[in-house]
Each structure stands twice: as structure tokens, then as C-alpha cells.
Amino acid sequence: MINWIPGTYCSELLTVSLFRPGMGEFKVHRVRFFNYIPSGIRCVAYNNQSNRLAVSRTDGTVEIYNLSANYFQEKFFPGHESRSTEALCWAEGQRLFSAGLNGEIIEYDLQALNIKYAVDAFGGPIWSMTASPSGSQLLVGCEDGSVKLFQITPEKIEFERNFDRQKSRILSLSWHPSGTHIAAGSIDYISVFDVKSGSAIHKMMVDRQYMGVSKRKCIVWGVAFLSDGTVISVDSAGKVQFWDSATGTLAKSHLIANADVQSIAVAEQEDSFVVGTAEGTVFHFQLVPVASSSTEKQWVRTKPFQHHTHDVRTVAHSPTALISGGTDTHLVIRPLMEKVEVKNYDAALRKITFPHRRLISCSKKRQLLLFQFAHHLELWRLGSTVATGKNGDTLPLSKNAEHLLHLKTKGPENIICSCISPCGSWIACSTASRFFLYRLTYQHDNLSLKRVSKMPAFLRSAVQILFSEDSAKLFVASNQGSLHVGQLLEGRFRHLHTFQPQSGTVEAMCLLAVSPDGDWLAASGTSAGVHVYSVKHLKVFEYSIPGKQYTEWSRTVQKQGFHHLWLQRDTPITHISFHPKRPMHILLHDAYMFCIIDKSLPLPNDKTLLYNPLPPKSESDVVRRRTAHAFKISKIYKPLLFMDLLDEGTLVAVERPLDDIIAQLPPPIKKKKFGT
Amino acid sequence: MVEQESPRVVRCGGSELNFRRAVFSADSKYIFCVSGDFVKVYSTATEECVHILHGHRNLVTGVQLNPNNHLQLYSCSFDGTIKLWDYIDGILIKTFIVGHKLYALFTLARAEDSVFVTISKEEPDVFQLVSVKLPKSSSQEVEATELSFVLDYINQSPKCVAFGNEGEYVAAVRDFYLSVYFFKKKTTSRFTLSSSRNKKNAKNNFTCVACHPTEDCIASGHLDGKIRLWRNFNDDKKYTYTCLHWHHDIVMDLAFSVMGTSLLSGGRESVLVEWRDATEKNKEFLPRLGATVEHISVSPAGDLFCTSHSDNKMMIIHRNLEVSAVIQGLVKDRNIFTGLMIDPRTKALVLNGKPGHLQFYSLQSDKQLYNLDIIQQEYINDYGLIQIELTKAAFDYSGNWLATVEQRQEKEAELELQMKLWTYNKKTQGFVLNTKINMPHEDHITALCFCNTEKSDNPTLVTASKDGHFKVWILTDDSDIYKKAVGWTCDFVGSYHKYQATNCCFCEDGSLLAVSFEEIVTIWDSETWELKCTFCQRAGKIRHLCFGRLTCSKYLLGTTESGVLCCWNLLSCALEWSAKLNVSIMEPDPESENIAAVSQSSVGSDLFVFKPSEPRPLYIQKDISREEVQWGVFVPRDIPESFTSEAYQWLNRSQFYFLTKSQSLLTFSTKSPEEKLTPTSKQLLAEESLPTTPFYFILGKHRQQQDEKFHENSENELVQLPLTENIPAVNELLHTPAHVLPSASFLCSLFINSLLLSKETKSAEEIPDDVDMQEEKESDNSDEENAFTEKVQDTKHTDLGEDIFHQLSKSEEKELRKLRKVDYSWIATF
């Protein structure tokens, strides 16, 4: 349909798309010049209690996914150039710790969405970290070969003691489930420590041989200590090995890859584990009985999964799924069919690539797009055309898209959020410690940018920024739970009001929305409550503004229920907007589809086709009307990062083809493919 | 008595060795394979066929060792019987009549008194696995009708059923699912693979299954080359499998080693793969096995493997993946382009064999003598590749020269053609390439023939081609300063009005050459290469051409595509006679004037034998085969028969062999099939088994005397037969299993007597008489021996007197019979 060459910059297509008679025909700007590349995944940590998954990326970003809520990325901690996480773990129930090559252990505040504190372990870069089975202790393995034990106190962590120092860096650590012993993977050997004495009781040498050739070093990338005393190790020679920790001997070896095996995760029941290799393959091992009559069991490699193209740096094993992530930036959640009770959408494979937060904002008036990257912002003007066409046509651009501005932030911190005002003359963005507001002035084709100085001191960091529809007000959600309202007048910022969070909570507001007249502001925090503020009266409301109730339509929806296919979608909706001229229309999209809901039409029931294509012209109006229902879904744009109405006849869709991302990653390990 | 029987069409050897998995004996000394209606017992060390167990009346479909007595063998057949054999002696012990057509046989050590068979239900392609209770009875033929159902809707191939973990369960695969029946729980679990039409799953079909000997692990092979190892299958939900993928095409068979430490697999790649520890990265290969691996079996002792291949071959392979023996039958899995030929030296049948090879196959011993690699290129076995085909071959009269033609045509315009001339090297006892001619013609070669004159020292070869020419090639001196050599060069190129040359033929004395150009037959003088005359019947293109022989050498015969058989008189240059007959094969008998023609019709093929001199056929046999007969050949007999009946006289000096479309090699025989098989191998075994004891020396001397005596009155091959068997007592001694023999003291006098007796009698006539008598007594016990001794009787003494020489008294006889009926199973303890 579209000749799209991966990697070509500045690509925009203007197409005409007819959604349905009555829902209008749109000119769609298909934008593909958002050159966004997510960072590779370094660690994942699964928390069984809350069914949440913490994911850390190579740029230091940490994301929290709620596996119960449709795998929604509900929290996120911005990255930092000097903080590359090497290890991530949950301890004491809901506390999240990370450690990295800067030698610091960091605890995250999951309420306020900031870093609680950082403690230097004084052992050089930290390569591995694990919490004790009870969750009260933290163990880190350092570059200098030391294994350090920290006690977790309610407020902080305290260094307790060192274990016997090893010769080389400790790359992997695992506690025995009873908490009495530790296995530590190093270079060329695995040590088993007694926790009480802190001394190494066994040193198990790993074979350097790789397919008959002696490699220089054999790096033990991961270890797992099972309750029966077995230590499972994965190493750079492609082996998965089973050791008897009581005798320090090798029990069994599986050669599974021609490249490094980089990660291992064991299920809580210890009846299965998963390993990830540098070839992008994830292998599942299961403990199966040797014969039905005997109690003897053996570990068997069962299924390989090839969902990654690059190194699988990390894996996790939830009770029902195998989770893997790696250099190719995808987070893959592969449910275990035998553990899934009902065959619903939980049983589907998920691949999460893009953040669920907004990276793009749009100025409708000037047709500008603001793209947010880790360390800079880009401002683009959309192309335009004078041509018209019918459905499916690609219109020639009379004016190409234009890169107007490249705004780089200072400092090592990543940008948390950004926004451009609807009039296009204000840009606001924030990092973890600084808030920036810029004024843009347009003189014909020239553009000048001026930073607004004299910002109030309390505006240091924002979780979410929003401009009112008339661009006269700026709303800033800070990570302390307060909402600041400011007025923008003649190039200056004047603080109007601060909505303080309800007493006792420090919940950060992640989502903001403002009504078109600017009177009402809605905000939602991490605990999923919605607060509605009246900007004029500076009061707090909840839900339906005057009646404090769901509207008629949503009650109908609640009563009738959604179409089963609609409920089987597995990606969260990332953006909702309303048609300014047609109040009955709701526009929403997720990464794979764009949908217009017409509230005036009947809701589809399970018997009707949800994804009905355009009805043939030949059919009569009656038939067409009968088959028509409220949902009109378009799946031609994918993966869809952003979609919004520019004006009543124009849509802008920002796509980011996965091939483009893959093309910009380092080349994967070359594997011989049969028949090539 | 021979004259009374009319010739009938019989299958002659060349039967499939690769129909089912071969079975090893417990000590790995023997290997058993089904072969047509018989079970063949081969020695794994010498590759010799030791026994042919015959008794089944239809295709044998399975053999298994008796798990309770490893010296016995069960076999099942389409004739609805299960037979129990003593394979060491080649005796049929018992027959169980089941009554259903039996497709496969399985035995289980746990189920002592029952075996498992696959039977078909009424509907086509629906098969059931049932267990058959074998009743304990002393009689020879027992009805076994107590069937109990195990699994339904299975695949008929025994490769798709496997018993696992000492008979705890049985796994069967078909289409896209695996069924497992647990004997203890009496439940069936079924595991289905996705069969959707998309590219990934479309070839998920199961092709074979094997069970781990000790663990709960089932290995299944698939159409796409994957091997799945199923575990935890006693849990319908938690079952899991591992994939092993090396084969790129269908996995033909799987087998676990005896201890289960490794898994063997094979397929079209002709590579035996050994997966050690059932891990993907730890595998060993035995490549270049020549043809698709059809079956794999493992010896119970664990030291040998056996693979059966699609080219009708079995390979015995050592545990360390070294081939130790090859048992090769007639190669049958490819198109036969060359037709059937007889190598004048070895009298072996020569035809296309392995890809790119000519096979020399001994009709007498039903064994391949050797393969001659003609194309001499690595053969890549893959679907859809256009291969070089060996299309034509011809021997000269003495067997000194062999001409072969190979071609490969990828596109219409690009024909690769090569003619090779091979000379017989006496030193190496084989053919050596002498001359290679690239593109001998511009187009396909349609025929080639040597000038078959005995006296001529200058061999001549003629090739006819579609390019409108025929070329005469002669042997010339090709010596240079380095060595003396000879080579072939083109001597003459002839053509006739740009017609395609379709056939060529030399007359018996080599003076005339007939070449057919589409509808016209041209006669050339072979001295001067002058066109002598032409014949044209306007009855379609000439399909076959041949000169008459001996007294009929003045006739030239031709058949045309429009179904006319013409006979021209070369003296009068006129048509002698013609007949309306759609001849598909015309073969002259090299030993007589007779010519055999096979005509094709929609119902079958008919054979006509005639002399060119008279238009009336000597012999007509209607409906010799339901299928199309593709090739035929006369094979001269070593010993002429003496049929007096006029109709069968044509069989006196030669035998006519023909090959049907399904590649069964058939011939005409007047003997019953049991007789036809030479039992020499069996006798040799008996002879071999004689230890070099004083006893042996007595016998040896005795034999020499017998030999001398026989030299006087007979000069045929019968002399070569071992003569020990002529003494009934010795014969009895050697051919009765040791465990059923009466005590030595009992036999002693018998034996001594027999020796004395043979000295007393002047003629040997009474001795076979005694054999006859003993045979009658024992006929209920052993069909096998029966057949064999009858043979002895037939070949030597057909007119025996009536007097019977009693060696055993009635009571002794009874005693002997009783002893014979005791259970042989005690021998299993050895």
C-alpha cells in the first residue's frame, strides 16, 4: 500500500480515509518521522504479591506494569545518564530497589514516583543484587569480587557485612529458599556461601570449552538455588548446568545455544524455569517425572520461544507466564498454556514495545507536533496539500513536513514530560529536577525561542503538563501530589493556584485533562481515582461534573457490556479525544487500532461483526443501517503512537514501524538459516 | 510330472526387503525381515540369507521375536494367520488363525499369552489395534479368535504404533494427533497438534512414533522434519514436549537405543542421526547412506542398528555408527529407463539401480551382485531436482563392452547428453571407463546396439537419435607415446530424409543393419554402410525392430505404434506377413528363433510367443499381469529344461522375465513356488554347522565316496549338492533340533546302521526312500522340512520303489514324536 523505506527520515503521507458514512471522511497525516527508539530492557522483576512487574531499561528508566490491569504501564521513573541499572529487585513486599554500575543502591518511592535515596555500596560497580527469601536482607555482588549484605530497615538500608571476597566480579547471586546459603556466579566459577559464617564452602569451576573450542573466559551470567540444593547456572558458553551444592559437583549439563545464555528465572514452585540466550531464544525447562510409576524427576528442556531478535538480557517467571526482555526493546509476556485456567485474552502472547504515556503533543492551530525524546524535544510542522481525493488515495504534498526546532536539555536527566500549547506558542517540559517553559514567536518563516525565566521555585519537577484549550492556562502536576495552575500572559507565567492533595496522600497525578472551556480540570493518580477540579471556583469534584454520576450512555454500556472481541483486545487505550463539532463521537486509539465510537448508534452485540469493513456500495441503505453499530475500528495504522484531530476533517496519526527500530539496533547474532 | 503343470506367472525374487522394520535376534547374529510372502533370515555377519521361512499365503506384514522365547519368531500376514517359527532351524511351530487381515504385529513381554495386531474395520482406512489371546494348545493350527480392543482409528503402518516403558502404555499416531492408551488405568489420552492451513503448521502430521524403553517419553516424527519428545503425557493438561529439528523433510522412522540414551532418526536425507541424551546440540550423523531411510531397528543386545532403505537395502550399522554389512535386494524405487539386460558374463540381470548406477542382480541367488556407478556424481536426494538420468545401456555379445547413455534436460533447449563406453577389465573383474563422448548426438538417443558377431574382433556400436542421424562407432587405436590404448570414434553418420531415427538393430551375423526412421525401415550394409533397401508399411511409427535368428534369420520384424506387427522377408524384400497386435514389448530369445511379444490392453497384458517364419503363435498366455508390463527379457537357462509339450518348448532353453509398472519382477514357471526356491543355503548351513570332530571326518569320507559314485551316473549340478542328506539318519540328526532329538544311545545304533547300510547297497535309491518315509511321519510337525525333502526327491529319484526300510519301531517312533512336541521354551535360558 505504502512504499515505506525503513530508516528514511522525514516521511509523511497524506491519505484520505473514509470511516463510515456519517462518521465523516478524514484527511489523515500519517507521520513516520518520529524517530523514537525505546531503550533496551536490562532487568525485569516480578512481584508476586501485587502482580506487578518492574522493568528497567538501559537508560536507567524504571517502569512498573500492572499485570492484573491489562499489563498497563502505570508508573515510570525517568532515566539518568549515569545510572545504568544492572539489577532490580523487590524486597519487603512492595519496596523496589535497583543497583547499577555507578555503585549505588537506589530505592524508589512508588507513591511519589521519585527516588527515595541512593546508598553507595563501596564495592565498585554493582553487577547483581538479590533480596533474601524473607525480604529483609539485600545482597549485592560487586566488581571487586565482594558480596555485601544489607539489612533493610523501614526507612533505609544498612550495611551489615561482607562475605569472603572473590577474585573477580560477582555477576549473579541467588539465595537458597531457606536463606542459609547463597550461590554466586563469577567468571569461570560459582561459589556457594554459608550465610551465617559468610565463607565460601564450595567453588564449582565451570568448563570453558565451547563446542570443543576453549574460550577465554566462561562468564556465569545467572545462577538459581533450588530448595533441594541444586544450583542451576547459565553461562557464556551456551550451557545450562545443574550442580549439586552439597558436594560441589556437576550433575547435568545442557548445551542449548551457540551464544551466551544470559538470564535465568525459576518459578516459585520450582517445577519450571526459563532461560534467555543471546540469540534471542527463550527456553523453558520443566521438571517432569521420569516415569509415572516412579517419584524420580528430571529437568527437561521443553519449548523454545523465539520472540526476540536480539539478546534476551533478562527473564522472569510469573505463576502463569514467562516474561522476557532484552536489547530489542520488547517486553514479551508469554503465558503458559497449561497454567491458564480459562482461554481468554490473558492467554495471549503480549509484546510491549512502546511506553503507554504520551510522548507527542500537538498544536492544532499551527499544525505542529512536539516529539519528546530522552534528552531532547523536536518540533515539526506538518506538510500540507491542496489536493483532494477519495477513500484510500494518497494525496501529493504541496509542502513537506518541516523540522522546526531541536531543543536539547542540559544535564544527565531524562525528560519526564513535555507539552506544546494548542496555539503553538508555548512549550513546557520537565526533568526530574528542573522545569522549563519556552515562548515561541513566529515571524513569517522564522521562529524564535525564549525561555521563560522567573519560574516559581516550587515548580521543580512535573509528572504531567497540560495547557488549556485557549493556551491561557498551564496546569502542572507535580510529583508531590499537588496541581499547580498558572496563567500565561504576554510571555510571562503567573502562578494562580495550587490544588493540594487530599491530606495524608502523596499520590502523584499521572493524567490530566481539561475541558474545552477551561473551567474544569480532571486528574488521575496512581491509585486510579479521578479528581475533578473546578478551575474557576478552585474546588474539587469527582466524576460527572454536575450530577456526579455516569452518563446515560456509559450506563447503557455498563448494562449491555462490550463486544467480546473488544474486550479481548490486549493493549490499553492510550488516548481519547472528542470531536469538537460532533459531540456524539468519541475518538480513541491504542497501539494497534483507532476507533470512533458513535454514541447515537446501537451498541454491537456478540453476534455482530465488530471489525466490519466498509459496507459494499451495492447494498441498500437499510442493510447498511442495520449492520451499522457504534464502533468503527481502523487497523491500518500500526503501531500507532499518537492520533488526534487537527480540525474537523483532518487527523494526524504518528506511526513508528518496528522495522525501523530494529534497523537502528546493533545487528543481532547471525544464525545460519536452513535453505539460505 | 513336470509336463503336467502348465506354466504360470510367478514372482521371482527381487521382493521388498524394506517393507517393514527388520528384527534382530536376541544375540544379534541374525536379522529377520519380511519379504513378500516370506520371512527371510539373514546373518548379520556374513549378509547371507540363512533361511527363508515360507508358509504364509499372502504378504507377510510383521515379524517379532517371541518375548518368552527368543529363539522363536512370530509373523503375521494378510492371510489372517500368526505363525510361530523356530528360526534357527527354519521350522514352522504353530499357526494361529485370527481370521482378519493383519497389518502389523507387536509383542510385549508383559502380555505373555497375547500379541497385538492391527486389523482393519469395515470402512476403508480405519484400523484398530487389538490384542489377540494365543490359546495354549498342542495342535499345529489353532484358532485365535479372542480379540480385545485396545485403540481405534490408528494408522495401519507399524511405525505409527509403539509400546512404551515395559508395556505400561501404547502410543499411536495418525494425522495430527497422538493417542496414548494406559494399560493399567485403561484410559486413552489424545494430544492434538494444530492442523491449520497456515505455513507453519501445515506439515505437523505425525509420521512415526517410538517410546523410550524406561522413561515416560514418547518420540514422534513429523512431516516437516521435526521430532517431538512428549513427556508428562499421563496428565492431560500438564503434558509437554521438546522439539528436535534437524531433518528438513519427513522423518521416516525413529528408534530409541536399548538403554534409551540416544534416539535414532532417519529420512529422505539418507542420513542416520543419533540424538544423544535427546538434546538438540548433541547429535551424531552417519551420512551418505544412499537412499531414503525407511525403517530403523535396534538389536536387543544394543550393539547393532539396522536401517532399511528405499532402494531395497538393509544396512547393519555398529553402535559406533559404522556400517558393518549391507544386504541389498533388487533396487526398485526408480524408473527403469534401460530396460532389462543380461550381462553375458555373469548372466546377471542388468538394469537401472541406485540413482546413476547400473545394478547387476543375480536371479539365481536373489541378490544384488554389484552396482556400477555410471554417472559418477554425488546424488542429492531432494524433491524437485532434475537429475542426470541413465537412459540407455547395452552390452556387446561377449560382455567385453558396455555402452551407456546419460542425459539431463532442465529446459527445452538445454540437453546434456553423454555416452560412455566401458570395457571389462579381467584383473579388477569389473567395468572400467574407456571412452566418454560428450553430445554424441544433437538430440535424445533413442536406441543403441552392438554388432553381435562372435568372430568380429572389431566391435561396432550404432546409436540412433531423434536428431535424424544414426552413428556408427568403432574401436580404434588410441595409443600415444605413453601407452597403448584403444578408444571409440565415430565411423559413419547415416540419415534418411531428415526423419528421426527411432530404432536400430543388427542382424545375427552382423552383415546388415536395420534402422527405422519413424515409419520407414532402412537396411544398411555394415561393410560399406550403403543403404540396401527400405520397407515402409505406412502403419505408424516403428516401435520395435528385430531380426530373426537361426533358421529365421531372413526375417525382419517390426511393430508399429498403430498396433501392427510386420514380418519382412529380407530375401524377397517383401512383407511376409503382418498381424494386428498392439505390441508393447518385443524380445527375441537369444537361444532360439522364438520371439516374445507382449500386447497391452485395458484389462491386462497378454503374451504371445511366435517364430518369425510362421504367423501363428506358438504360445499365448492371456492376462499375464493386471498392470502394464514395461520391460521383458529372455534369460538363457543354465540347464535346459525338457518340456515336450509344444506349447512350452519355448521355455526349454530360456526363461522369460518381465517387469511390471509397479516394478515386480515376474517370470513363467512350471514349479510350485515352494520348489522354486533353492534350498541350498539351508543345506549349506547344516554342512557348515558340522564341527571338525572325528564324527565329521567319518562323514567327510563318506561323502567323498558318495561323490565318486555320483560322478559316474550324473553330470549335472546335482553333484554339487551336499550328500550327507542322502543318509536318513545323518539327515535326521542334522536337521532335527538338538533338544528334540532322542538320546544319543538311542540314535547311535541308528546312525551306525545307516553307515553300514550305505556300504551294502549298491545304489543310493533306497536311501531317499527312507527320507520319504520319515517325512510322512513328521509332516505334521514341519512343513519346512517337508518342502525341502520333496525337493530332494524331485530332483533325483522320482521313480522310487515301494519297499520301506524300517529304522524305528512303532514305539520308538511315538517316543520321537512326543519328544518333538515338548515346549521349546526352555532353550531360552541359554
Summarize this entry quickly.
With 676 residues, chain A is mainly beta. Helices cover 12% and strands 43% of the residues of chain B. In chain B, helix 4 (728-735) packs antiparallel against helix 5 and helix 6 runs antiparallel to helix 7 (783-796).
Topology:
The complex is a heterodimer of chains A (676) and B (830).
Chain A: E1 12-20, E2 24-31, E3 41-47, E4 52-57, E5 62-66, E6 72-77, E7 85-91, E8 95-100, E9 104-109, E10 114-120, E11 126-131, E12 137-142, E13 147-152, E14 157-162, E15 172-175, E16 181-185, E17 189-194, E18 200-205, E19 209-210, E20 213-214, E21 220-225, E22 230-235, E23 239-244, E24 249-255, E25 261-266, E26 272-277, E27 282-289, E28 297-305, E29 312-317, E30 321-326, E31 331-335, E32 350-352, E33 360-363, E34 368-372, E35 376-381, E36 394-395, E37 402-408, E38 415-420, E39 426-431, E40 435-443, E41 446-451, E42 462-467, E43 473-478, E44 483-489, E45 492-499, E46 509-514, E47 520-525, E48 530-534, E49 539-541, H1 552-560, H2 564-567, E50 575-578, E51 585-589, E52 594-598, H3 621-627, E53 631-634, E54 640-647, E55 650-655, H4 658-664
Parallel strand pairs in A: 2-55
Antiparallel strand pairs in A: 1-2, 1-36, 3-4, 4-5, 5-6, 7-8, 8-9, 9-10, 11-12, 12-13, 13-14, 15-16, 16-17, 17-18, 19-20, 21-22, 22-23, 23-24, 25-26, 26-27, 27-28, 29-30, 30-31, 31-32, 33-34, 34-35, 35-37, 38-39, 39-40, 40-41, 42-43, 43-44, 44-45, 46-47, 47-48, 48-49, 50-51, 51-52, 52-53, 54-55
Chain B: E1 8-11, E2 23-24, E3 30-35, E4 38-43, E5 49-54, E6 60-66, E7 69-77, E8 81-86, E9 91-97, E10 102-106, E11 114-120, E12 127-133, E13 141-143, E14 147-154, E15 161-164, E16 169-174, E17 177-182, E18 187-192, E19 206-211, E20 217-222, E21 226-231, E22 240-245, E23 251-256, E24 262-267, E25 272-276, E26 283-286, E27 293-298, E28 304-309, E29 313-318, E30 323-328, E31 341-342, E32 349-352, E33 357-362, E34 367-373, E35 389-395, E36 401-409, E37 415-425, E38 430-438, E39 445-450, E40 460-465, E41 469-477, E42 486-495, E43 501-506, E44 512-517, E45 520-525, E46 530-536, E47 542-547, E48 555-560, E49 564-569, E50 574-580, E51 583-588, E52 595-600, E53 605-610, E54 617-625, E55 629-636, E56 654-660, E57 665-669, H1 673-676, H2 680-688, H3 694-713, H4 728-735, H5 744-760, H6 766-778, H7 783-796, H8 810-821
Parallel strand pairs in B: 9-13
Antiparallel strand pairs in B: 1-57, 2-3, 3-4, 4-5, 6-7, 7-8, 8-9, 10-11, 11-12, 12-14, 15-16, 16-17, 17-18, 19-20, 20-21, 21-22, 23-24, 24-25, 25-26, 27-28, 28-29, 29-30, 31-32, 32-33, 33-34, 35-36, 36-37, 37-38, 39-40, 40-41, 41-42, 43-44, 44-45, 45-46, 47-48, 48-49, 49-50, 51-52, 52-53, 53-54, ...
Helix pairs in contact in B: 4-5, 6-7
Protein name (chain A): UTP4 small subunit processome component
Organism (chain A): Oryctolagus cuniculus (Rabbit)
GO molecular function (chain A): RNA binding
